[in-house]
Amino acid sequence: VQLQASGGGLVQAGDSLSLSCVASGRTLSRYHVGWFRRAPGKEREFVAFITASGESTRYADSVKGRFTISRDNAKNTAYLQMNSLKPEDTAVYYCAADREWINPSRHTEYDYWGRGTLVTVSS
To answer: C-alpha angle 66/75/108, rounded to 5°?
Structure first.
């Protein structure tokens, strides 16, 4: 499966953004999806996860209550709604997918990655 993340941009603190992750090649409904981010000079960081069915989600503590992960399998797309953005949310955001999951917060769990989309939050 090929993934393409989009929706990034430059916003001010407190604003919202919605990222999309569109899958091609294979149906996304067979894959669990995770969102990760990498801020300048920092390691890749887990953001959110959703199971293939959409029934279960997980979030990093740093985004819990502000970000919402969802998916529309009919559209082969996963989403990350980001509200109340903070300057520390500035990063390149990546979506990833895998058919199995044990520890979805580990980036090594995912076999498929899309190109990232840059989110910049100004103060």
So the answer is: 60
